[in-house]
Design goal:
The protein is 51% helix and 6% strand. It has 247 residues and is mainly α. The strands form two sheets. Strands 1-2 form a two-stranded antiparallel sheet. A hairpin with a 3-residue loop joins β1 and β2. The longest helix has 21 residues.
């Protein structure tokens, strides 16, 4: 696949774009190693397409629970087990590597280096529920919370409770610029730079609190994220940001 075709495919699926950048910028892998991992996932995508488990690519799956289900199906399938054995376990290794990325397992070590993943993305597709809404990725939100170390990005001292599922602090991902405003932007709003890790109280406050309190929170978010947003193709002044974010 030529470079332009690869770039077009990466932009079609944000998780693929982020995964490639993660392998290169965060893990520092050479192109040969990156191509090895992506090649394994391409084989798995074709295998899943042939069984009508996906429409086109595994990167279209944006929910971690759905990805977990697909992974379990693949690893328990006798045909795949044989194929993987013939390929010296390169396919299962590739899937496991992508799953660690998607689940956010390694993002606790990424921390502030998540800025290296900031890139302008094309706008995703709308999907019909009862009204048209913009598609968003639960995986990217999960990774953002992990990268923030499960600490509130308004005030890291804010406390919350531990979740039974993983015994980690309960935090929520918040799109600073709401996804409903996507039609006003040429670049995707469902990007790391636009997702803030908030404790439950701050998340409710930024939606329903006093106007002056919400503005102070938005001022801090803009100060912390203005350059990252610009790197992701979202350029605006502080006043523009606050006006749109509190709309």
């Amino acid at each position: 696949m030529c470079r332009k075709a690869k770039e077009k495919m990466n932009q079609k699926y944000p998780l693929l774009e982020y995964y490639v950048r993660y392998l290169r910028e965060i893990r520092g892998l050479k192109d040969s190693s990156v191509n090895h991992y992506i090649g394994a996932m391409n084989v798995i995508s074709k295998w899943l397409r042939d069984r009508r488990m996906i429409r086109d690519s595994i990167y279209e799956i944006t929910d971690i629970d759905e990805l977990t289900g697909v992974r379990n199906y693949v690893f328990e399938n006798p045909e795949f087990i044989l194929k993987d054995k013939t390929g010296h376990q390169m396919y299962s290794a590739g899937f496991n590597n992508y799953y660690r990325f998607a689940s956010g397992e390694d993002f606790s070590e990424v921390g502030e280096n998540i800025e290296l993943l900031d890139v302008q993305l094309i706008v995703g597709q709308q999907r019909l529920v009862t009204t048209n809404t913009w598609k968003r990725s639960g995986i990217i939100k999960r990774q953002s919370i992990e990268a923030a170390g499960y600490k509130c990005e308004i005030d890291s001292k804010h406390k919350t409770f531990l979740k039974e599922a993983d015994r980690k602090p309960y935090m929520e991902g918040h799109h600073a610029l709401p996804i409903r405003l996507q039609g006003d932007f040429q670049s995707s709003l469902d990007v790391y730079a636009n997702i803030i890790c908030l404790c439950p109280v701050c998340h409710r406050r930024i939606h329903y609190g006093l106007k002056e309190d919400r503005r102070l929170m938005l001022y801090k978010i803009y100060t912390d994220r203005a350059q990252r947003l610009a790197n992701s193709g979202i350029c605006m002044s502080k006043d523009e940001f606050v006006k749109m974010a509190e709309n």
